[in-house]
Design goal:
By secondary structure, the chain is of the alpha+beta class. About 45% of the residues lie in helices and about 15% in strands. The chain is built from 13 helices and 7 strands. It has helices at about 5-15, 25-30, 55-60, 70-85, 105-110, 155-180, 190-195, 215-225, 230-245, 250-260, 265-275, 285, 290-300, and strands spanning about 35-40, 45-50, 95-105, 115-120, 140-145, 150-155, 205-210. The strands form 2 sheets. A 5-stranded antiparallel sheet has the order 1-2-3-7-4. The chain has a two-stranded antiparallel ribbon with strand order 5-6. Helix 9 (about 230-245) crosses helix 10 (about 250-260). The longest helix has 26 residues, at about 155-180. It binds flavin-adenine dinucleotide (FAD).
């Protein structure tokens, strides 16, 4: 249960208080404001605030005095042009602020995206909750045999049961010791900033994360991808759903050119041209390494 009844009530209160504004409003984003979208077993993503919409991207691109929009079709065409040609600054005119609750090991991957503003829950000041990410059985997978940085088949039987028991018992034991160490009941009580070092990386943390649309799309391109670890990918997927509603034209262009598209090297393009001319090109005659060829083959659906 990610939210307490009090927290649910606070969100309902915020959602019931509307104010008139002269600012740009995205109906799609308004639909998400403040609502917690559950992710993993205790996590969530909440849209806290946003600036701009599809029209704001066009307004900036045209450096316009008014709204800067023409027909919807014209705006969509402009957004697709900007995305196709990596003309990225108009996308930086839109911003988003999220409240995210996530396991610490996911936060560690997420924080590598430096082009955002972050404020994290302080475990020096506050006591962390007894909340740990325990994978669902189908996410409890074995080490991949083809990819050192990945996972393969789900664990099964006694091994799966034992692993789940270790993950749960170790987390609970560590938290019991954490609570005991910070307790001031009949003892001085260890400082929270020290006691927390005993806690495992599957404990949940929270942060506010603010980023512009250009850098957000870069984050989503990397983290909604199948190469990203499942536990961060599900957060990226939840954010994709928000962005799709917030800036539908920009998201559609992003889906087309970045998520669904592919970049080909000069060698790969040469192979495509030779194939189109009727030549049978193999890895050996392609000039590409085995790994590169495998990826190229995946892209062209060979
Ligand atoms: C599948 C996957 C596996 C990964 N594996 C590893 C791993 O094994 N080990 C590891 O350490 N990391 C790993 N990473 C993290 C990765 O190397 C990047 O640090 C992370 O994806 C953030 O990307 P970024 O720097 O482009 O993003 P951001 O920090 O958001 O930066 C966005 C862009 O801004 C520019 N920029 C930002 N800061 C600077 C700067 N200081 N100097 C120059 N340009 C800057 C760059 O153009 C950059 O692309 C992995 C990431 C992925 C997606």
């Amino acid at each position: 249960m990610p939210l307490t009844p009090d927290q649910e009530a606070e969100i309902a209160d915020l959602r019931s208080t509307a104010r008139p504004t002269l600012r740009t409003v995205s109906e799609g984003a308004e639909k998400h404001l403040y609502t917690a979208h559950p992710v993993l077993d205790h996590g969530f993503v909440r849209l806290i605030d946003y600036m701009g919409d599809d029209a704001a991207i066009c307004q900036a691109a045209r450096v316009s005095y008014g709204k800067g929009t023409k027909s919807v079709q014209n705006d969509e065409g402009l957004i697709r042009y900007l995305m196709r040609h990596w003309h990225s600054t108009p996308f930086e005119m839109c911003e988003i602020k999220l409240h995210v609750k996530l396991p610490v090991f996911v936060a560690r991957q997420w924080i590598r995206h430096r082009t955002a503003n972050v404020n994290e829950y302080s475990a020096r000041y506050s006591i962390l909750d007894r909340e740990f990410y325990i994978p669902a059985p189908d996410a409890l997978a074995a080490q991949s045999v083809v990819n050192n940085q990945g996972r393969g088949e789900a664990l099964s039987g006694a091994e799966a049961e034992r692993v789940l028991r270790y993950l749960t018992d170790d987390a609970m034991r560590a938290y019991d010791h954490y609570e005991e160490m910070i307790s001031q009941d009949g003892q001085q009580g260890l400082a929270r900033e020290l006691a927390r070092m005993n806690l495992p990386a599957n404990i949940y943390t929270q942060w506010y994360w603010k980023v512009d649309l250009h850098n957000l799309l870069h984050f989503l391109r990397l983290r909604a991808d199948t190469h990203a670890q499942y536990e961060i990918r599900v957060y990226a997927d939840a954010i994709c759903n928000i962005v799709r509603d917030w800036v539908p034209a920009a998201y559609a262009a992003f889906e087309d050119y970045r998520l669904g598209g592919a970049t080909l090297s000069a060698k790969a393009l040469d192979c495509v041209r030779r194939m189109l001319a009727g030549e049978t090109v193999t890895q050996e005659t392609s000039g590409m390494s085995k790994g590169e060829w495998r990826e190229f083959d995946g892209v062209i659906g060979g």
